[in-house]
């Protein structure tokens, strides 16, 4: 995500300030100057930036801070709070009710990713257990129904539309009625867009809203227009009751920060952000979690939700193996398969405190390809090879696996090396008392033990042993019954 660049610049400013021996007004001013420059480069409004700068200065009055206060932490918290305030609309989004029909109408200008967002939105809720469908009421753009149909077929989402009917309001009414009868819980209606704001678009929107009476109206906005998003969001909200906003294409340019802050200023709550072309590159938006990830503080609650949805938290066999210091190739296979369900690797890394900067440019694509390559090679192994933790791989065995998977001998060697590396780490984990006993005293010592066996670079990114302890504390809070949680 290009917004990572903004996060790195803000983090850099905070890091410079925290590394100083003496933190005085001059140091705070220098930090705020860098942060302001980063926000302006992300197309955030000048007045908004000035307000943020002034508020941070007020809240970290160094003269009034009592002795013993951690100045660095206070300043970081002030920056965090002001960024949250800047992105918070102050209005709660519409809450849909599962178990009854919810009609959600999507509106927006043409080319902003509205049709794609409709399918992503339906797919997101489908994965959460909702019975979802999509209605194509866009009769203005040639090929709109074909695009929606193709996307819905890929995602296995039921859809409705017409090649012969030209009245979009009638199509919407017919589609909604049909899916209501079939007891669908979420009926997403895609409407016509235009290249610019015009009377015909707004009239059609108003007629459709009156006809289908949506539970929520979602305005879809392309983030590349930056702070101009303010006027667009306001214009649509004045004509229909926009209950929430989706910001798209946040992965492609540097103006995303401007768009996010501009839309929030219209008091329209942002509910989702699009961070890529793929159907799973679509994230629920929470101001605090988003700012936490932007500043490298992570989003542990989001990480836990993702882990639970992929079933990674409920692998009893793997847990038993780890407590005995055993890690088979089948364990590695299962974990790689689960990783593919977790969504984009960059998204996952940004949820872990301090890890957002460890994903290099292009690294996500390479990582995904490597996991797929490893899975293909393990598919060519026998059950004995996968289940025996002490399996030895002779050259003839490795040639057989290479031939069976269409990979090179070098690739097989790389897989065996990776497995040995993980197995060595698991062997060390199995020796920890907390893993075996689960009692409170042993669990308290686990962060220190973990920090001794971790990769030094990863440990540094997490903030040392204290950072590991904080991460485990947050995991315990979000996953009761595990990680020492109660």
Automatic annotation (TrEMBL):
<dbReference type="InterPro" id="IPR004125">
    <property type="entry name" value="Signal_recog_particle_SRP54_M"/>
</dbReference>
<dbReference type="Pfam" id="PF00448">
    <property type="entry name" value="SRP54"/>
</dbReference>
<dbReference type="InterPro" id="IPR036225">
    <property type="entry name" value="SRP/SRP_N"/>
</dbReference>
<dbReference type="InterPro" id="IPR000897">
    <property type="entry name" value="SRP54_GTPase_dom"/>
</dbReference>
<dbReference type="GO" id="GO:0005525">
    <property type="term" value="F:GTP binding"/>
</dbReference>
<keyword id="KW-0547">Nucleotide-binding</keyword>
<dbReference type="InterPro" id="IPR042101">
    <property type="entry name" value="SRP54_N_sf"/>
</dbReference>
<keyword id="KW-0342">GTP-binding</keyword>
<keyword id="KW-0687">Ribonucleoprotein</keyword>
<dbReference type="InterPro" id="IPR036891">
    <property type="entry name" value="Signal_recog_part_SRP54_M_sf"/>
</dbReference>
<comment type="similarity">
    <text>Belongs to the GTP-binding SRP family. SRP54 subfamily.</text>
</comment>
<dbReference type="GO" id="GO:0006616">
    <property type="term" value="P:SRP-dependent cotranslational protein targeting to membrane, translocation"/>
</dbReference>
<keyword id="KW-0963">Cytoplasm</keyword>
<comment type="function">
    <text>Component of the signal recognition particle (SRP) complex, a ribonucleoprotein complex that mediates the cotranslational targeting of secretory and membrane proteins to the endoplasmic reticulum (ER).</text>
</comment>
<dbReference type="GO" id="GO:0030942">
    <property type="term" value="F:endoplasmic reticulum signal peptide binding"/>
</dbReference>
<protein>
    <recommendedName>
        <fullName>Signal recognition particle 54 kDa protein</fullName>
    </recommendedName>
</protein>
<dbReference type="GO" id="GO:0005783">
    <property type="term" value="C:endoplasmic reticulum"/>
</dbReference>
<dbReference type="InterPro" id="IPR027417">
    <property type="entry name" value="P-loop_NTPase"/>
</dbReference>
<dbReference type="InterPro" id="IPR022941">
    <property type="entry name" value="SRP54"/>
</dbReference>
<feature type="domain" description="SRP54-type proteins GTP-binding">
    <location>
        <begin position="269"/>
        <end position="282"/>
    </location>
</feature>
<keyword id="KW-0733">Signal recognition particle</keyword>
<dbReference type="GO" id="GO:0008312">
    <property type="term" value="F:7S RNA binding"/>
</dbReference>
<dbReference type="GO" id="GO:0003924">
    <property type="term" value="F:GTPase activity"/>
</dbReference>
<dbReference type="GO" id="GO:0005786">
    <property type="term" value="C:signal recognition particle, endoplasmic reticulum targeting"/>
</dbReference>
<dbReference type="GO" id="GO:0005829">
    <property type="term" value="C:cytosol"/>
</dbReference>
<keyword id="KW-0378">Hydrolase</keyword>
<dbReference type="InterPro" id="IPR006325">
    <property type="entry name" value="SRP54_euk"/>
</dbReference>
<dbReference type="Pfam" id="PF02881">
    <property type="entry name" value="SRP54_N"/>
</dbReference>
<dbReference type="Pfam" id="PF02978">
    <property type="entry name" value="SRP_SPB"/>
</dbReference>
<keyword id="KW-0694">RNA-binding</keyword>
<keyword id="KW-0256">Endoplasmic reticulum</keyword>
<dbReference type="InterPro" id="IPR013822">
    <property type="entry name" value="Signal_recog_particl_SRP54_hlx"/>
</dbReference>
């Amino acid at each position: 995500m290009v917004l990572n660049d903004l996060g790195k610049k803000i983090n850099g400013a905070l890091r410079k300030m925290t590394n100083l021996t003496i933190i005085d007004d001059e140091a705070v001013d220098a930090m705020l100057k860098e942060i302001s420059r980063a926000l302006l480069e992300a197309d955030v409004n000048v007045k908004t930036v000035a307000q943020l700068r002034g508020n941070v200065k007020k809240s970290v009055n160094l003269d009034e801070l009592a002795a013993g206060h951690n100045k660095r932490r206070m300043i970081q918290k002030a920056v965090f709070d002001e960024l949250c305030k800047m992105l918070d609309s102050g209005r709660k989004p519409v809450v849909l009710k599962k178990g009854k029909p919810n009609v959600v109408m999507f509106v927006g200008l043409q080319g902003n990713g509205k049709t794609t967002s409709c399918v992503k939105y339906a797919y997101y809720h489908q994965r959460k257990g909702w019975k979802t469908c999509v209605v194509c009421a866009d009769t203005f753009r040639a090929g709109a129904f074909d695009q929606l149909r193709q996307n819905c077929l890929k995602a296995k989402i039921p859809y409705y539309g017409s090649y012969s009917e030209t009245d979009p309001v009638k199509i919407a009414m017919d589609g909604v009625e049909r899916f209501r009868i079939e007891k669908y819980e979420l009926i997403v209606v895609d409407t016509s867009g235009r290249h610019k704001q015009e009377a015909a678009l707004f009239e059609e929107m108003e007629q459709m809203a009156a006809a289908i009476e949506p539970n929520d109206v979602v305005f879809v906005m392309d983030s590349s227009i930056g702070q101009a998003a303010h006027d667009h969001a306001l214009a649509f909200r004045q004509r229909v009751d926009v209950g929430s906003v989706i910001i798209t294409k946040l992965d492609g340019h540097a103006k995303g920060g401007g768009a996010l802050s501009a839309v929030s200023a219209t008091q329209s709550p942002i509910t989702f952000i699009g961070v890529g072309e793929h159907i799973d590159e679509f994230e629920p938006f929470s101001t605090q979690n988003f700012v936490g990830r932007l500043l490298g503080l992570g989003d542990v609650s989001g990480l836990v939700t993702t882990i639970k949805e992929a079933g990674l938290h409920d692998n009893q066999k793997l847990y038993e193996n780890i407590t005995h210091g055993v890690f088979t190739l089948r364990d590695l296979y299962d974990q790689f398969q689960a990783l593919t369900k977790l969504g984009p690797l960059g998204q996952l890394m940004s949820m872990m405190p301090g890890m957002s900067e460890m994903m290099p440019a292009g690294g996500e694509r390479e990582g995904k390809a490597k996991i797929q390559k490893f899975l293909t090679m393990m598919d060519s192994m026998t059950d004995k090879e996968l289940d025996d933790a002490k399996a030895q791989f002779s050259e003839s065995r490795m040639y057989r696996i290479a031939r069976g998977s269409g990979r090179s001998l070098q690739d097989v060697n790389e897989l065996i090396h990776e497995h040995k590396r993980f197995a060595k780490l698991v062997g060390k984990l199995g020796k920890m008392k907390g893993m075996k006993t689960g009692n409170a005293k042993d669990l308290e010592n686990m962060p220190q033990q973990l920090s001794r066996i971790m990769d030094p670079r990863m440990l540094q990114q997490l903030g040392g042993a204290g950072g590991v302890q904080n991460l485990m504390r947050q995991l315990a809070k979000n996953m009761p019954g595990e990680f020492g949680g109660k």
